[in-house]
Design a protein that fits this description.
The protein is α+β, with helices and mostly antiparallel strands and about 525 residues long. It is built from 20 helices and 12 strands. β11 and β12 form a beta hairpin. α8 packs across α9 and α8 crosses α14.
Length: about 525
């Protein structure tokens, strides 16, 4: 029986993590270990220190002995909910280990308590089953399921049966959660969207329109480059046009299929549409062809349910006043973790960032945030943030190799793609949005302003046509502000030495200015 288990254990090293001191493991970590639940360990984990000090590191939250819970399942659950927030995947896995009687007995230890009612609500919400427990007394005050000091939530709906406000930012079919962190709070308080609007107001409309066109192409090319592709300009421009329409269409399964058709130019060697076989991201062993996965995609049999859940959660997030970048993180990273297509997942994942930002009116209409360009500039961090989800899951996914050296998942993995912590992904995306606003967009606008000034100079001094102006600037950019010997002798042979010197000086004056 669950009540006979011992939960708290002393640790110095736990699942490869070095604890900051020898201390007592409690909360989710202790319960996952005690029940051997098939799920990655959350981060941070909770410890009780004997040194009467409370502090945090990247992987641990250390509490004093006064916070130590009694060594029972119920008290450990209260500690976890109170200090670590709601972990939906944990509760799903725990409930599958307990009988209905054990769950009912657990809830009825303190039937009117807020934590009992949270556990009760989570069970009935997750399984769509009513336990043989009468409705809560209507005199009990409503309690929010998520503590908004710990996790980001929506306004939520009242469940009169449990006297709980369901403020989960998702449905039972797809519900990632994001913890409040110092970094995220600073980003949100900075109100980047308003800062962007103030900055853009001072820019000429024609410059802004041209910058937007360049940035669309830049973002499109960056998105292909991230996937290790170098597309022809026509293909990149076509995908750039699709990005430019982000937010103008509703997100549906049909829309996702349309996007895949836009992004895949040659479909001769793959099956278009939602997968009907396994999938993974990684390599093959050179001699045997054995799969070496870095990420294992959702089972193809689960894709329909997962994408339906993602779309319904997307609609919920659009209707609620939740931060646009957080909403984009949940939807876009959820999509790429599911990996519903054979090819095109990464580019559509980054398109979905644009889509949600536009739908939530973070991005001004007609102006696209070239987030892929920033992601490409921080590609190592991007890989790490993807791997922070994918790698821990590999230990809990059973698979076998197929005849064509693909993989076939043999256990139930649905919940791993429904219920995950998207905190690290949200922090990364917010960093990229900030970088885009503070560097990438201003740099493009500055470049175009300087380009126009230099173009005007060349037109007035040398009566150069637009085509020759563009050629001159390209040569100067490629040769550190100087025209090469070849350019002097061929394309610009009509210019005198003093004219070339003046032209080069003017270029440096404009383009090399701080």
């Amino acid at each position: 029986m669950a009540k006979q288990k011992s939960f708290s254990i002393k640790v110095r090293v736990f699942h490869g993590r070095q604890a900051p001191e020898e201390a007592l493991l409690v909360g989710y970590g202790a319960l996952i270990e005690a029940f051997q639940l098939p799920m990655p360990m959350p981060s941070p984990l909770a410890l009780i220190s004997s040194k009467k000090r409370q502090y945090e590191t990247d992987e641990w939250r250390v509490f004093t002995s006064r916070h130590q819970p009694e060594d029972s399942l119920y008290k450990q659950l209260i500690f976890a909910l109170k200090y670590e927030g709601v972990n939906v995947l944990f509760f799903k896995k725990l409930f599958l280990r307990l009988t209905k009687k054990e769950i009912t007995d657990l809830i009825q230890l303190e039937p009117t308590g807020q934590y009992s009612r949270k556990i009760w609500f989570l069970y009935e919400w997750l399984f769509s089953i009513e336990l043989k427990i009468p409705n809560a007394d209507n005199k009990i005050n409503y309690t929010s399921l998520l503590d908004e000091d710990q996790q980001y939530a929506i306004k939520g709906l009242e469940s009169s049966r449990h006297r709980i406000i369901n403020n989960l930012p998702g449905s039972r079919d797809f519900c990632p959660l994001i913890c409040k962190t110092t970094k995220l709070e600073k980003h949100i308080e900075a109100n980047l969207s308003a800062q962007k609007d103030n900055y853009l107001k001072g820019i000429r409309k024609d410059i802004l329109q041209r910058a937007s066109a360049f940035l669309l192409l830049k973002d499109s090319k960056a998105s292909f480059t991230i996937e290790g592709e170098s597309p022809k300009s026509k293909r990149a421009a076509r995908w750039g046009q699709a990005i430019g329409q982000a937010g103008t269409r509703d997100l549906t399964k049909e829309e996702l299929l349309r996007l895949q058709q836009l992004v895949i130019e040659n479909a001769r060697f793959l099956e278009m549409g939602f997968r009907k076989k396994g999938g993974f991201v990684g390599e093959h062993e050179r001699t045997t062809g054995e799969p070496l996965p870095d990420h294992i995609s959702a089972k193809w049999q689960d894709i329909d349910a997962l994408i339906s859940g993602l779309i319904s959660t997307h609609e919920l997030l659009l209707k609620n006043n939740i931060d646009a970048v957080l909403a984009a993180s949940m939807v876009a990273f959820g999509f790429v973790f599911i990996h519903p297509f054979e090819d095109g997942n990464g580019r559509i994942h980054r398109y979905l960032i644009h889509h949600v930002l536009a739908k939530k009116q973070f991005a001004q209409q007609g102006i696209i945030f070239p987030v892929s360009a920033s992601i490409l500039d921080h590609i190592d961090d991007y890989r790490k943030v993807l791997e922070s989800y994918s790698h821990p899951l590999l230990d809990f996914i059973d698979w076998k190799e197929t005849e064509d050296h693909n993989i076939e998942v043999t256990n139930d993995t649905l919940d791993y793609y429904r219920y995950f912590d998207a905190t690290r992904q949200a922090e990364f995306l917010y960093d990229c949005v900030k970088d885009t606003m503070e560097k990438i967009i201003p740099n493009e606008v500055t470049y175009l302003t300087r380009y126009d000034a230099f173009k005007k100079y060349l037109e007035e001094e040398y009566e150069m046509p637009d085509k020759v102006v563009a050629q001159a600037i390209r040569f100067l950019e490629q040769n550190n502000g100087q025209l090469s010997k070849r350019a002097r002798e061929k394309e610009f042979s009509e210019l005198k030495e003093n004219e070339i010197a003046s032209l080069e000086e003017k270029y440096k004056e404009l383009f090399w200015a701080n």
